[in-house]
Amino acid sequence: MADDLREMALEMFSPLPSTTPAVNDNLITPAKIDLGKALFFDPRMSASGVFSCNSCHNLATGGDDNMPTSIGHGWQKGPRNSPTVLNAVFNEAQFWDGRAPDLAAQAKGPVQAGVEMANTPDNVVATLNSMPQYQDWFKASFPDEADPVTFDNFAKAIEAYEATLLTPSPFDAYLNGDENALTDDEKAGLALFMDAGCASCHNGINLGGNGYYPFGLIEKPGADILPEGDRGRFAVTDTADDEYVFRAAPLRNIAVTAPYFHSGKVWDLETAVAIMATSQLGADLNDQEIGQITAFLGSLTGTVPVVEYPVLPAETATTPRPTGEVK
Amino acid sequence: MADDLREMALEMFSPLPSTTPAVNDNLITPAKIDLGKALFFDPRMSASGVFSCNSCHNLATGGDDNMPTSIGHGWQKGPRNSPTVLNAVFNEAQFWDGRAPDLAAQAKGPVQAGVEMANTPDNVVATLNSMPQYQDWFKASFPDEADPVTFDNFAKAIEAYEATLLTPSPFDAYLNGDENALTDDEKAGLALFMDAGCASCHNGINLGGNGYYPFGLIEKPGADILPEGDRGRFAVTDTADDEYVFRAAPLRNIAVTAPYFHSGKVWDLETAVAIMATSQLGADLNDQEIGQITAFLGSLTGTVPVVEYPVLPAETATTPRPTGEVK
């Protein structure tokens, strides 16, 4: 029976690997990881000097922020909840609507978004080129390139760093054969998660992040949770079938990354599970079942890698000055 | 001659100690340091969830931000340049006008300032109490107290952490007897720094931070650098003699903490040195002399301690929600 549950689970899910995965067209080296970490934590990558990648994808708080939607340049609010960067390398595509094929493409988005970091590729490159240490780090990270300080390489270095942000969890230990890694409640939740149909969308290594589904497949939630103005993947594909379609949220570390959904309107994980059951499965789960599924989701909270906070290069006379001006 | 210079220097300055200093009325323990680090990096200490202590006193960039004045809650600008937290434990008092006697008193300021973190002591305590792990950490840090989660203890823990942020520099190695720790230019700059009179105000362990002086003692700089609306320590003492009086800036890590002065209006260190010479000393230094003093100031850039980025407790159902609302 115990073995049966794990065997079923192994058909739907995969444990995290124990090493950094390879990514397409981007050789991961220690030098590139270190550069990417510096860039990830550097607030001077934003026009104002206030925001770094880590501001909204904070490694101290589950790899996201703790807000419905992020606050960015000029105190503007972003349109959707900030997803966690942890294990994001295993998502099939990035953003809630999957509009970026990989983390390098994703990294170029927020830095240019007017409501987020409000910067330009030219200004990022000028900022990096103004600091000799960054020039050296780019040379070491892209040794075959004559002119390595580019916006593309900025994004690739961030992707390389983010690929290291894996958080092995009790669920991984369980999948790897440790029967005692999950409690009985968590195992009951796992069984329910598969039986009730949650795993039809939330499967694979990240229990989600690898497919697109309408939010409200069976019953559309209210506009407080599914705001009408945000039609999801429709904006990417311009296809009627993609109205209110979103990438299934990856569920690793979900217990520590409230609030939930692309709208960030639900703070309580049990409530989120209940909404999913109704809207996506038409299932009427009782409180005990919801509690067990939530307990199982808690077993997806993993150990964040040790991060040595970087010491960044100092500005020079040619570093573009920060500006909080809203254009 | 070489020994003479060091002997003279040792009469004016002191090297950093090699261990964390004791602070008044606040026993520093490993548990308290760890708690203080978590609090220092926790953006949920601000009303919006955007700003932590580290936002404006960023350990990655010299212990300050890189702006004339910080951007805070509601995208408001603070009134004065953010000073570095590095080695700040050795300042006689905190803030540009010395209005906080120590780091614990200082820590209570920005968290409540409407233009900075815009929080309240009650909301900070409610936030901390909502997370069991924070409760445990406060108990471990203040083991003799029945009710350890208080705003006072919040500030004391931050003070304990900040007391560990010491950055030994080549100048310390020189003071400790390593003749080769400074270049000839840096030594010439050190001699000038003492001869010209800079060290009259910028002395002691932090080369400043321990006395109050009018900005514009000899010649008042223009309103672009010394804005008329900010009368400095006058706001603290209400004494005419304290008009435009500020605490002498501590100069450790000055080369990596541009822009300069309480107004943050000067980005170039040589320019700042020239302004100081004119306004405070009435000295007419030539370019070589300014270059040598600037070289000496560069020898005050120290090694930042290794900081393991914290993993913070997750919010619970009772955690007060972040709000970006500007009251």
TrEMBL record, chains A, B:
Record's protein name: Cytochrome-c peroxidase
Chief place where the protein resides: periplasm
Compartment list: Periplasm
PANTHER family registered for this protein in UniProt: CYTOCHROME C PEROXIDASE-RELATED
Keywords: Heme, Iron, Metal-binding, Oxidoreductase, Periplasm, Peroxidase, Signal
Segments crossing the lipid bilayer: none
Alphabetical list of PROSITE patterns matching this protein: CYTC
Source organism phylogeny: Bacteria, Pseudomonadati, Pseudomonadota, Alphaproteobacteria, Rhodobacterales
Ranges for domain Cytochrome c: 31-132, 184-301
GO molecular function: peroxidase activity
